[in-house]
Structure formats: C-alpha cells, structure tokens
C-alpha cells in the first residue's frame, strides 16, 4: 500500500497481523477476493517470518470445493453444513486452524476474524463455529460533496477534514487511501458505501451521467475488499442534467431516462449496489412536486435497478421544515409515520425504506422510531449516525455503541416480540430481503481518519454491530482496543483505562447536554455547543417548551400532539403515562413541573443541576486518566487526544453553565447543594 505512512493504520496496524504472519498458511480459492487474502497473508508472512513452504500448515483458509484440503482440515469441514453468502466457519483441531467459506467474500471475512482473534486463533481446540452476517446490506453513507459547498464545505456534517474521494470539484487522483479504507471496512464487516451526499447538489447530480469514470475508479479501488459502491441521486435529475421537462415518476419518458442511465452505470460498474434518495425533505425535490407519493417515486427507481440486481434506499426523513413554532399541534416526531405507514405494502421488493433510529434527528437520547413496528410489509433499514453531529462532533469522546445496542435490542411490539435487530435483518440465510443497517460515515482525510482518534471506535463498532447486532458493546470496544493498540507493552492496563474513559462516555455526554430526552439545545447551523432556545422559535420545530412552570413537550394523546399513539401497546400506554414513562425520555413525551419527582427521588430541576455538574466532573476524570497514559500510546496520538480533551472540558463547562443558568432563571429554584449557578 503506497504512502501508508500518510494515515493512521487504525485497527489494522502491522502488529495485529503478527500471529498470522508467524504461521504457515494455505489459501485455497479463486477470484479477486481470494487473491486479496493471499496478498494479506504474504504481507504478514514477510514481516513476521512465517510461510515455510509446504505442509504441515498451521492455518488453512479455503473456499469450499477449491481444491484438496489437508486431512485435519477435511475433518473440520466434515462437521460443517451449508455456510451461506459472505459467511464462514472457523474451527481448530490437531494443531490446525481452519476457515472454510462458500464464497471468496466469506473467506475474506474469515481471514479478518482470525486477525481479530490473534493468538487465540492458534490455541487449544474449538468449533467448528459458523459466522454469518445478520444483514446482507451493511452500508456507510458519506455526505461528501464533489464541489466545496459554500456553507457545508467538502463534507457535510463531517468532522475529520475533507473527503477521501473528492477535492475542489474533482476526484482525488491517488486512490491508495480509498483502498486502505476498503481494507478497514472489510475488517469490521461493512460491505457497501455511498460516495456522495444525500443532499445532492448540481455537480453531484451528474455523477451517474457525466462523472461515471470517477465513480468507477473508486469502485475499482474498493472491490478487492468486497465493498460495493452506491450513489445518492437527485430525484430531479431527469430535468437537470437530463433535459426533460418533468421528473414525474409516472411519466414514461422519465422512467425510460432512469432505465437508460442505470444501464450505463452498471456497464461501467457491474457490481454497483444501488441508489440512495432523500426526497421531499429539507428542500430536496421529490414526487410531491408532481402530486405523486413516495411509493411512486421509489418504485420508479426500483424498476430501473431491478434488472441489474440493485436496490433503492429511500430515506424516511421527511417532515415540514417550515412549520409555525406557535402551532403546538405540529410535531416533527410524527412526520415519518404519518407519511409512510399508509404506504406499507406498496413498495417494490428492491426498495428499502431507511429509517433513522429515532423520530427526530440523531439526538443524544430519543425513543426508537415507531416505524419499526408499523410497516411489516416493507423492507426497513436502520439508519445510525456514526459522525457525531449532535454528540460532540468528534471533538468529544462519545462512544456510541452502547446507544446503538439499546436501539437494536429494543422490542417495538413489547417484551417477547421481535427486536429492532430482527426487524431490520430478517433471515438473510433464506430470503435475503432484509433492509440492513446504514450509518452516516465519520471518515475524512484527517491523518486519524475520524479527527478524534478514539472516534475510530464508533466506525469499527458500526461494522461489527451491522454484522452481529446483538454483540455486547463492551466486547466490541475490547476488540477495537486490542487491534488498534496491538503494539502496546501493557495492553491489559491500557484496556482498563480506555474502557474507563469510553464505556460510559455517551451517558456522560448526555448528562452535560440534554436532560431527560430533551433535544436540540445546540447552536443552530453548526450544531456545536449550547444554545438552549436556538431552535425553539424556528421553522425547524420546537423541542423543549420550557416556561416558568415546567419543561418538556406534551406528545400524549390526551392533551398533546398524539405521538404516543403511533406506538403499539404496551409502549403507547407506557409513554402516555406520566407514572410509567421512563425517566430518560420523560421530557420527550411530557411537559412537567420543575418539581416533578423522578424515580430516584430527585426533582426534574435538581436532576438537571446534578447531571450537568456530574457530567463535567466525569470529563475531568476521563481527561486525567488519559493524561496518565502518556508513554503508553504513540506520542502524536496522545497529544491529539489531549488537545481534544481540553476542548471537551471547555465545552462541557459551557454546557453546564448555560443549561443550569437557563433553568434556574426560568424556574427560580436554587440548587439544593448550593453550587454556583450564574
């Protein structure tokens, strides 16, 4: 890999390949992905001295039917049944570790599984154990602009520098970093990316028609690691750049235009994945312009993609962003359900409705979107935001895997029903018609990929949860630490300190920012730092309704917006009830007095004070722990994180002081502990 020194190796440092590189390995399989495995093994062997020619082998990596296996490997294979696409079986007996796959993609994932295990892959006996991805589609959506946007820059809501694909209106010439990115993604289980912004601007709208060579070059760089390219497309593209007088999805000329363009895309990129669409949302054009519905628009694109095996992912993020703040009957939280539930069963089978995990917009705390329980006849994908737009923008340590795990394990139909993980993954071993998981990428051209070196853990966790959604989030973090800091002289001590810093960091961030489910107390525009009333009187929606008597949004059926009624029982009753509503979501569903008593015996106003003081103290403690790691990690990495911790602490104090002061002045209730509030 050329100029690898220009960027951080993340969770694939050379030291992580030591256990594989010191062994004798046999690779059996044909095609580019099997070739990638051979290259990876050869690179590791060159560095660590393994690879003595001929048997006996320590590690056998084989695609089924690709050639004769050593006897011990045959014995492991004899215990295996069908494996399935992208899956693999790993086992060990008589001193030989065996990975068997039905296809080369599974072989690639099996190889990285062995890398994750390290020395454990070559210790004792185990298996055979089957490993299959829960979802066929595990995709990262980049919000990268080809041209530099005058407001949003090269990457919208990106906090790690510029795009790794585009620069100043053109494709970046050197694709070594793109190939390295594909390698990182394969190692954590991601198999697709969207290379441009869902908010499609003029230049990006021409990618499928006039810039295909650029997209094809990116696809070629990612292909050796099994990562397929998707494109975000503009619904209005038949008009501009297409030259048609309309983009009406029921117009025959429009349908023919999309069919022709899509055929050209597949001619240039045979393994192209499909289209991502944001329509009738925040100014993006859509079928509403022509009096059509979202099923009409999505199905039109699905028809163009279907002959080629592609999918259209249609975002459910549709709401009125020009509402009157005075009208409390309008509720942004209701919008996705109101728009899409009546369309259940009307979407083509290669349409995936991509649903944000919560009903608002990636806030630090939201209830799970009611759509997951309301559209059984539609393929649904769960959309998570890996880039930390509302969770510290990769300037704050905020490990998001615990939050995502809570979402994935939530049972929208009540205890004992299917969880969100089941609803979005289905049974890929049979129909393969699950929606999968999508994440908004947090990668840029920063040396550390994600700006904050510890934010790499969020990217890694997304891939691992997309592959196995019920994996314990602490175990995923442990994997990431073990790989990323494989060269550490005292890895056990480093693990302890990083777990102490990161395990609870999401809840720490929540404590010093948004209390009890209230969202959008951020500064409008850049969404960084506190501005309690910043969005309260804007057309984007109102979010806390604080007055002299209380705080929170009444979303009950009895007296509020009725949003609680979008959930099935028992959640509709739980969220409706002031007594049963979980405290962490109280202000999302209810407007309550400042003296309302929570389950722990504190009042709402005292909870606000206590958590904001506690959150800052937790940042101080985490910062101190990190300073104690000087000498235990790379000096440059340590310095970067130290600088960012300084900013996090400054910002956390600002959050604490502004939030506490605001609510003290609203309520007139002093802090019971007499701490300073301005």
From TrEMBL:
- Report the EC code(s) recorded for this entry: 3.2.1.139
Gene Ontology cellular component terms for the protein in this record: extracellular region
SUPFAM superfamilies, per this entry?
A: (Trans)glycosidases
Pfam families in UniProt: Glyco_hydro_67C, Glyco_hydro_67M
Q: Where is the Glycosyl hydrolase family 67 C-terminal domain?
A: 450-675
Q: Name one GO biological process term.
A: xylan catabolic process
What name does this protein carry? Alpha-glucuronidase
Q: Which organism is it from?
A: Sphaerisporangium rubeum
């Amino acid at each position: 890999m050329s100029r690898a020194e220009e960027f951080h190796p993340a969770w694939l440092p050379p030291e992580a390949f030591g256990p594989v590189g010191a062994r004798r390995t046999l690779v059996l399989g044909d095609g580019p992905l099997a070739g990638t495995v051979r290259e990876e093994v050869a690179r590791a062997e060159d560095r660590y001295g393994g690879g003595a020619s001929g048997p006996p082998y320590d590690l056998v990596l084989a695609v089924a039917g690709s050639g004769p296996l050593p006897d011990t490997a045959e014995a492991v294979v004899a215990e295996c049944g069908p494996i399935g696409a992208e899956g693999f079986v790993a086992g060990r007996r008589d001193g030989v570790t065996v990975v068997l796959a039905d296809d080369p993609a599974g072989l690639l994932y099996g190889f990285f599984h062995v890398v994750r295990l390290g020395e454990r892959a070559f210790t004792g006996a185990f298996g055979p154990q089957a490993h299959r991805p829960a979802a066929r589609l595990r995709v990262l959506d980049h919000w990268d602009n080809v041209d530099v946007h005058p407001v949003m820059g090269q990457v919208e809501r990106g906090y790690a520098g510029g795009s790794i694909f585009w620069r100043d209106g053109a494709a970046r010439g050197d694709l070594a970093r793109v190939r390295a990115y594909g390698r990182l993604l394969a190692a954590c289980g991601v198999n697709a990316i969207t290379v441009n912004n869902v908010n499609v601007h003029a230049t990006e709208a021409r990618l499928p028609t006039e810039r295909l060579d650029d997209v094809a070059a990116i696809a070629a760089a990612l292909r050796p690691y099994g990562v397929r390219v998707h494109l975000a497309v503009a619904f209005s593209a038949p008009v501009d750049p297409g030259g048609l007088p309309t983009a009406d999805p029921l117009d025959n000329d429009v349908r023919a235009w999309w069919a022709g363009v899509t055929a050209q895309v597949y001619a240039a990129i045979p393994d192209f994945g499909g289209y991502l669409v944001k329509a009738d949302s925040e100014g993006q054009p859509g079928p509403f312009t022509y009096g059509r519905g979202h099923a009409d628009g999505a199905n039109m694109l699905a028809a163009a993609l279907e002959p080629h095996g592609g999918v259209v992912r249609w975002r459910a993020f549709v709401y009125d962003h020009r509402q009157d703040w005075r009208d409390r009957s309008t509720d942004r939280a209701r919008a996705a359900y109101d728009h899409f539930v009546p369309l259940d069963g009307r979407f083509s089978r290669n349409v995936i409705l991509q649903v944000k995990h919560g009903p608002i917009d990636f806030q630090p705390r939201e209830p799970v979107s009611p759509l997951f329980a309301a559209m059984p006849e539609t393929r649904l994908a769960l959309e998570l935001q890996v880039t930390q737009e509302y969770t510290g923008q990769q300037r704050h340590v905020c490990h998001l895997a615990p939050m995502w795990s809570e979402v994935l394990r939530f049972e929208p139909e009540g205890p004992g029903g299917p969880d969100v993980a089941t609803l979005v993954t289905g049974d890929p071993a049979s129909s393969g018609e699950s929606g999968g998981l999508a994440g908004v990428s947090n990668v840029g051209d920063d040396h550390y990929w994600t700006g904050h070196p510890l934010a790499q853990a969020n990217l890694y966790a997304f891939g691992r949860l997309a592959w196995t959604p019920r994996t314990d989030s602490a175990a995923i973090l442990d994997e990431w630490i073990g790989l990323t800091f494989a060269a550490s002289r005292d890895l056990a001590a480093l693990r302890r300190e990083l777990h102490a810093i990161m395990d609870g960091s999401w809840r720490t961030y929540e404590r010093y920012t948004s209390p009890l489910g209230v969202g959008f107390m951020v500064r409008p525009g850049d969404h960084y730092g506190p501005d309690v009333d910043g969005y309260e009187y804007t057309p984007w929606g109102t979010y806390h309704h604080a007055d002299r008597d209380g705080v929170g949004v009444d979303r009950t059926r009895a007296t509020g917006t009725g949003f609680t009624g979008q959930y099935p029982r028992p959640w509709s009753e739980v969220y409706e009830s002031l007594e049963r509503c979980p405290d962490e979501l109280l202000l999302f569903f209810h407007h309550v007095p400042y003296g309302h008593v929570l389950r722990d015996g504190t009042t709402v106003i005292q909870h606000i004070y206590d958590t904001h003081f506690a959150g800052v103290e937790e940042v101080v403690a985490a910062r101190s722990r990190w300073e104690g790691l000087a000498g235990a990690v790379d000096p440059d990495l340590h310095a970067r994180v130290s600088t960012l911790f300084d900013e996090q602490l400054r910002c956390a104090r600002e959050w604490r002081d502004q939030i506490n002061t605001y609510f003290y002045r609203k309520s007139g209730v002093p802090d019971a502990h007499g701490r300073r509030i301005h």
